Amino acid sequence: MQLLDVQTYFELLKRPYPSSREGVLDQLGREHLVVKEAAGWSINRLGALLLARKLEDFSSLARKAARVVVYSGDSKLATKLDQVDPKGYAVGFKDLVNLVMGQLPQNEVIEDAIRKEVKLVPEIVIRELVANALIHQDFSLSGVSVMIEVYASRVEISNPGEPMVPTNRFIDAYESRNERLADLMRRLGICEEKSSGIDKVISAAELYQLQAPIFRAGLRRTNVVIAGAKDFAAMDRDDRIRACYQHCALRYVTHQETSNQSLRARFHVSEGKSVVVSQVIAASVEAGLIKAENEAAGRKFARYVPFWA
User: Fold this and answer.
1) Structural domains present in the chain
2) Does pLDDT of 149 surpass 90?
């Protein structure tokens, strides 16, 4: 009881707190978070990882605490904050997201002729990407943890381990090396059904006109870069092609068609830009990321699907 935040655990499950200590231990035992032995009860690694009041109390998990680093600019030269989240992933998730959101730069936008300040990235994006990083990390790698790095114009979230599926299949494919952790995190309300988190990130990027996220597989590490809003005119060729592919993949898995019109809506541009958007589509086809679904229909009525469809 001193080591695990069992009160928050029952709150996350939306269940009444048991009236006795034995009731608490029985529930934790059924979930295999603790185990009964001859001499008493022992805490499993999964129980500590999710519910620890302080991960540093468990020597084998102390280095698995999520780390938040905030920089003054767009490089690592000047650090404003370097903080480790001390709690278990489930009981500390809300505080971790709030910490990151509190450190995000503000952007000024005009909405209905009114000037207002908004965060660089909406909370739904941070929430889903952080949950994804926690769940999909490779625990066999020692001395490394989930990193959340906040820069002046972007956020980078990385986790130990190379991805189980290619990065350009994050939208439609799912494979986890930590199924038990993923299942408990879902039931505790931290994440959604399999692979839907990335769908939400892409949807939010389109809704808020953020730059399409970049997914990278590095040496023993998986990295996601999400940046703030950028007008279509300011996007470079790679930005546009990446956004086109992610738009096409998202619409395919949600049973919608991709066309010049749908892509114009994603880029928030008028019908007068249809020729330029057609050029983006052509470049994406040339890059091998999307393909025409009905080539005989002609460019005006063409519909597109991702390359793996």
Assistant:
1) 6-53 (no CATH), 64-227 (3.30.565.60), 234-306 (1.10.10)
2) yes
pLDDT of residue 113 exceeding 60: no
- Residues 204/198, Cβ–Cβ less than 8 Å: no
Give the number of other CB atoms < 10 A from CB of residue 262.
17
pLDDT tier at 234 (50, 70, 90 boundaries)?
Answer: very high
Answer yes or no: are the C-beta atoms of 217 and 167 closer than 8 Å: yes
Under a CB-based contact definition with an 8 Å cutoff, are residues 84 and 61 in contact? Answer: no
Secondary structure string (H, E, C) spanning 159-193: EECCCCCCHHHCCCCCCCCCHHHHHHHHHCCCCCC
Strands 114-119 and 290-292: unpaired
Give the model's pLDDT for residue 116.
65
Non-local (6+) Cβ contacts of 238 within 8 A are none
Q: pTM above the 0.70 mark?
A: yes
d(CA 258, CA 34): 49
* Helix, strand and coil percent figures for the chain, each rounded to 5: 45, 20, 35
Question: How high is the mean pLDDT of the chain?
Answer: 92
Quick one: tokens of 138? 């490779």
Handedness of CA 143, 144, 150, 154 (dihedral sign): positive
- Give, in order, the Cα–Cα distances in Å from 303 to each of 149, 196, 207, 257: 38, 24, 21, 6
Longest Cα pair distance anywhere in the chain, in angstroms? 76
pLDDT grade, residue 114 (50/70/90)? low
What's the rounded mean pLDDT across residues 223-244?
Answer: 96
With CA atoms as reference, report the closest residue to 48 among 36, 67, 62: 62
